[in-house]
């Protein structure tokens, strides 16, 4: 077998044969899935709080009824929003909005039926979200007691395990009215749980708003109707795919570009870091000299870079495959949209080229630094400033999502060390072809320069005991002292 | 006999430090050559130049008919002074990998690795990871890795360092076996006894310069014989004996001394002994001793082979930063 391939194979197998590699390979998608599932699991695991409203407002104000109504309205809004969110992955934002509109105007059950029509798979498995609180009838004892300390003492009792007849409550809310404005004293079983506090605060604000409108002579039905109003807003752009109206599909490329930029950044830095550690290990274990007696420095460097590239590719394919399967299963329309974005205008090819160029320039540089070092501490002198520079594209990429043609983004995308990340983020928004081609040429020329520089430094570093610093590194590159 | 290796006026300079000066010698095919000198004498630098790992500042090297060691690297086996193998690899995998780099098919490398490990008494260690092996075992594995491809020329840099006497004997046997199979062996060491037992030829190096090139016997012949005397002896009286060129006190215990008297070139010692008895010196025991390679080294260079010239060596390593790619 060719020496370079032999070194590449050893490099690949050294990592691929470890349990840690496969664990970390699966950890990312696993934690990604968990990250999405945890809020849902938490909301399901959260107990429904039993809350009693006790009206201490002047008789006839109807505060308790108004608060109750507001809380129920809020719960209904949550249910309708859950219907919309369930519909979106399968039916898109437009389908989700249709389901919401039906639920708002025709009721929750009609909304569920609409969900089943718009998104059959989501509709079949849909269950309404668990309410965070239910309203219980206030205990007669508390209602009968005199407001103040007597009621508070009873509230304490109903919040404890000594509640009469096992009617333990999560919270008792005393609704008050001071100078015509609604307020409340909330007794809660758990001081740290602010769910009831927040719900009551929102409800009181809502009640106050209605009261203010009513006092101004505005019909409550008008307020309700106003609240339900959803403006029909259409955004137009000459750059939209339709030639006019902007859709979610038009915004998707920017999102995809940013995501690809971040993925490239993390993969390239991960791969280059693996290489740095691998070369450092060989240096500290005195293996580099043996290797150099058996293969040229170019063969060693190429083999190692290739081996780690295959490793990185394995990670990319595994993550891409698992992510793709997950997306197709959960949101086939969105998966199709993302697929068509990647396949349009040669984007996929550009991304692959950015990955190759970016990996090459950083991998060889990190390998050359590793050739001078036996411990990570040795490498810090050079790695510190390099990592600081590497954080620059992360910031610029976020700018690119809103203003991909901002001057700073344009300039940064043409600076070769940043091109792989910033141009990847820019490319989907359709920059002039000349800029993409120019950036690619610049990137590959710079990568070639880095290969040359790092090759010289690697050869010198591999047999050297000299302490690594910028002077010694550049001296090795120049071939002088 | 044809030369497998020729060095012609080789010099190596690192910045302001002259590591090797005008070094010339030859190693004939199928022989064992010892490259001897203290630490820091320039042995490792020379071996690296022979391998093509670093360029000579001046001079010419020819190895196996090539003007650059890198052109014939598949025909060379090399064991570096500072050893190491991949800690997580098994010995069989490591040997097959390094054999593979020398052009040996991996399957054949694995087969040979198993056979050679058995021969070296490491059969039980085949499936262990390198990090689980003792230092001696790991060194044997590395030695096997350097010769598994059956090289024509074997370069061993301080191969005996770190080995216990038993393993040193085993290594000596292995070096003899390599030569018996037709390989040319060049090994560096600062321990003269190994060279004395093994070498057809030795090259002595001190402070980067060749001090001697020839057989072990020729080297010994450059040093005088010794007359070892024991008794209540006076150093001045012994120094005055005919044919004695210098006296060293080896032992002094309650007036009973052991003296080592160097004999001048051509002096047999009998004259000195005769004179000692005639003058009534208290000689209780005497012995005429042949010089060792160690003695020859001191006589030839004025240096002690066990002294550390590593200040120079460190400078040489520092100078490596100046070694850019060729």
Output the keywords.
heterodimer, A: 481 residues, mainly alpha, 2 domains, four-stranded mixed sheet, 20 helices, B: 326 residues, alpha/beta, Rossmann fold, Alpha-Beta Plaits, four-stranded antiparallel sheet, 33% helix, 28% strand, elongated
Outline:
Chain A has 481 residues and is mostly helical.
Number of domains in the coordinates of chain A? 2
User: What oligomerization state is this entry in?
Assistant: heterodimer
Identify the biggest protein-protein contact and residues per side: A-B, 35 and 37 residues
Q: Low-confidence parts of chain B, pLDDT < 50 over ≥5 residues?
A: 312-326
Low-confidence stretches of chain A: none
- Helix count, DSSP H or I runs of 4 or more residues of chain B: 11
Mean pLDDT of chain A: 84
Structural class of chain A: mainly alpha
What spatial form of chain A do the alpha-carbon principal axes imply? Answer: elongated
Morphology of chain B: elongated
The largest beta-sheet of chain B arranges its strands as: 5-6-7-3-8-9
Largest sheet of chain A: 4 strands, mixed
- Helix fraction of chain B by DSSP (H/I, runs of at least 4): 25-40%
DSSP summary: helix tally of chain A:
20
State the separation between the terminal residues of chain B, measured CA to CA.
Answer: 33 Å
Overall structural domain count of chain B: 2
């Amino acid at each position: 077998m060719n020496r370079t391939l032999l070194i590449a194979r050893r490099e690949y197998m050294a990592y691929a044969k470890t349990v840690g590699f496969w664990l970390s390979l699966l950890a990312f998608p696993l934690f990604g899935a968990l990250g999405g599932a945890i809020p849902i699991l938490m909301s399901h695991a959260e107990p429904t709080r039993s809350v009693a409203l006790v009206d201490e407002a002047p008789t006839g104000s109807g505060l308790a009824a108004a608060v109750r109504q507001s809380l129920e309205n809020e719960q209904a809004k949550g249910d309708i929003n859950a219907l919309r969110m369930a519909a979106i992955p399968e039916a898109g934002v437009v389908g989700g909005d249709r389901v919401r509109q039906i639920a708002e105007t025709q009721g929750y059950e009609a909304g569920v039926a609409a969900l089943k029509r718009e998104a059959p798979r989501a509709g079949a498995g849909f269950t309404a979200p668990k309410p965070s609180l239910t309203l219980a009838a206030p205990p007669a004892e508390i209602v009968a007691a005199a407001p103040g300390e007597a009621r508070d003492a009873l509230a304490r009792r109903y919040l404890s395990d000594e509640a009469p007849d096992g009617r333990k409550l999560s919270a008792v809310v005393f609704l008050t009215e001071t100078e015509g404005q609604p307020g409340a004293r909330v007794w809660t079983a758990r001081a740290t749980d602010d769910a009831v506090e927040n719900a009551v605060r929102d409800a009181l604000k809502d009640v106050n708003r209605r009261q203010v409108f009513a006092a101004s002579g505005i019909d409550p039905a008008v307020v309700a109707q106003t609240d339900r109003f959803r403006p029909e807003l259409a955004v137009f752009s000459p750059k939209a795919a339709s030639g006019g109206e902007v859709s979610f599909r038009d915004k998707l490329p920017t999102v995809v570009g940013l995501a690809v930029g971040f993925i490239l950044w993390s993969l390239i830095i991960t791969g280059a870091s693996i290489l740095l550690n691998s070369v450092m290990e060989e240096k500290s274990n005195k293996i580099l000299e043996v290797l150099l007696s058996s293969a040229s420095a170019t063969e060693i460097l190429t083999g190692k870079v290739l081996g780690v590239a295959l490793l990185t590719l394995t990670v990319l394919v595994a993550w891409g495959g698992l992510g793709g399967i997950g997306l197709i299963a959960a949101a086939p329309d969105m998966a199709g949209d993302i697929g068509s974005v990647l396949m349009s205008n040669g984007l996929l090819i550009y991304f692959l080229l950015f990955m190759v160029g970016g990996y090459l320039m950083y991998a060889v540089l990190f390998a050359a630094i590793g050739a001078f070092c036996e411990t990570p501490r040795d490498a810090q002198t050079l790695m510190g400033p390099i990592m600081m520079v590497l954080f620059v594209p992360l910031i610029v990429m976020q700018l690119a999502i809103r203003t991909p043609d901002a001057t700073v983004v344009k300039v940064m995308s043409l600076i070769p060390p940043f091109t792989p990340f910033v141009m990847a983020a820019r490319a989907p928004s359709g920059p002039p072809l000349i800029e993409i081609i120019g950036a690619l040429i610049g990137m590959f020329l710079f990568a070639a320069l880095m290969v040359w520089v790092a090759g010289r430094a690697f050869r010198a570093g591999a047999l050297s005991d000299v302490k690594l610093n910028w002077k010694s590194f550049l001296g090795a590159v120049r071939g002088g002292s | 006999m044809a030369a497998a290796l020729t060095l012609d006026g080789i010099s190596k300079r690192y910045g302001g430090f002259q590591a090797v000066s005008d070094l010339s010698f030859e190693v004939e095919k199928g022989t064992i050559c010892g490259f001897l000198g203290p630490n820091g004498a320039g042995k490792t630098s020379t071996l690296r130049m022979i391998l093509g790992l670093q360029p000579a500042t001046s001079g010419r090297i020819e190895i196996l008919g090539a003007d650059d060691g890198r052109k014939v690297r598949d025909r060379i086996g090399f064991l570096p002074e500072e050893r190491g193998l991949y800690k997580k690899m098994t010995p069989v995998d490591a040997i097959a990998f390094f054999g593979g780099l020398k052009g040996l098919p991996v399957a054949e490398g694995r087969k040979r690795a198993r056979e050679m490990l058995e021969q070296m008494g490491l059969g039980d260690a085949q499936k262990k990871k390198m990090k689980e092996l003792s230092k001696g075992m790991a060194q044997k594995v590395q030695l096997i890795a350097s010769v598994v491809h059956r090289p024509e020329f074997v370069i061993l840099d301080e191969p005996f360092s770190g080995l216990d006497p038993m393993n040193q004997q085993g290594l000596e046997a292995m070096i003899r076996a390599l030569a018996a199979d037709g390989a040319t062996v060049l090994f560096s060491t600062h321990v003269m006894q190994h060279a004395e037992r093994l070498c057809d030829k030795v090259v002595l190096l001190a402070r980067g310069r060749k001090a001697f090139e020839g057989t072990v016997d020729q080297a010994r012949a450059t040093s005088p014989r010794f007359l070892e005397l024991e008794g209540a002896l006076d150093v001045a009286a012994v120094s005055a004996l005919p044919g004695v060129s210098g006296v060293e006190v080896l032992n002094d215990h309650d007036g009973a001394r052991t003296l080592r008297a160097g004999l001048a070139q051509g002096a047999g010692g009998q004259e000195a002994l005769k004179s000692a008895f005639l003058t009534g010196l208290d000689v209780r025991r005497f012995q005429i001793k042949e010089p060792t390679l160690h003695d020859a080294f001191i006589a030839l260079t004025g240096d002690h082979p066990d002294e550390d010239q590593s200040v120079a060596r460190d400078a040489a390593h520092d100078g490596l930063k100046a070694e850019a790619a060729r």
